[in-house]
Write a structure and sequence with these properties.
With about 230 residues, this protein is α/β, with parallel strands linked by helices. It has a single domain, classed as P-loop containing nucleotide triphosphate hydrolases (Rossmann fold, 3-Layer(aba) Sandwich), CATH 3.40.50. It is built from 8 helices and 7 strands, in the order E-H-E-H-E-H-E-H-E-H-E-H-E-H-H. Strands 3-2-4-1-5-6-7 form a 7-stranded parallel beta sheet, with helices on both faces. Helix 2 links the parallel strand 2 and strand 3. Helix 1 packs across helix 8 and helix 4 packs across helix 5. It is globular. It starts with a strand and ends in a 13-residue tail after the last helix.
């Protein structure tokens, strides 16, 4: 079953948010997901400790450089989807996790500085491909943008990636308060309190579009049904 790895050498690019939004969108459709928190700060483990984790989501944070490959393999055997949130600092763990990926997503904000860091992540994927003699699909995910405004320079950044053969997701993960509040309240987008959080439907629509595009990249039918997902 597919393993999706979130990778970026830059902190604050949106890896953890993208991982959690994607995982809980899959579970909201009836999918079963293992979410591996390989960030030394353990943000996903802290989220899970608030006690509102969906029954179909397993969060695993007991992982190290020595165990990451076995952890991913065991999770892939147990659930249809595995999503790995990696730390920003370079390490062997990152290379090992990438070696198990069916898709690497590279979150980046719409700035030249972040694009440079995203390019480094792409180079790391290339190094892993050579070392392990693999072909590893990857794509850049633009994060934390305003849905009403296309940032200056974004078109140029996207064009540079495309010229270099890098896939860029058409869906951007917008800067939505709901994405911040899933961490604040320990919930998913599906069970946030609309009395406390504004514009949840817009965040849900953005998350669904993100999940659909990821599934298309994985060549998986984008309509998950509870009766069809193990």
């Amino acid at each position: 079953m597919p393993t999706i790895v979130m990778a970026s050498p830059k902190g604050g690019a949106g890896k953890t948010t993208a991982a959690l939004v994607l995982a809980t969108t899959f579970t909201g459709r009836g999918g079963k997901v293992t979410l591996i928190d390989a960030d030394r700060n353990k943000p996903l483990a802290r989220w899970a400790k608030q006690g509102r984790v969906p029954d179909s989501l397993t969060v695993t944070a007991d992982v190290s450089e020595e165990t990451i490959i076995d952890t991913i393999d065991e999770a892939a055997a147990a659930t249809p989807f595995v999503i790995v949130d990696l730390e920003g600092a370079a390490s062997k763990m990152i290379s090992y996790a990438i070696s198990r990926a069916d898709l690497v997503l590279i979150p980046t904000k719409a700035s030249q500085l972040d694009a440079v860091e995203a390019a480094e992540a792409i180079r790391e994927i290339s190094r892993v491909e050579k070392a392990f003699r693999l072909t590893i699909p990857s794509a850049v995910l633009i994060t934390q943008t305003n849905p009403a405004i296309r940032p200056r320079g974004l078109a140029a950044i996207e064009a540079t990636f495309v010229r270099n053969g890098v896939t860029v997701l058409k869906t951007r993960l917008f800067d939505r308060q709901a994405y911040k509040d899933i961490f604040s309240f320990g919930r998913t987008l599906h069970n946030l309190d609309s009395a406390k959080v504004a514009n949840i439907p817009a965040a849900l629509a953005n998350a669904e579009a993100f999940a659909d595009e990821v599934l298309r990249l994985l060549s998986i039918q984008s309509s998950l049904k509870q009766t069809e997902v193990a």
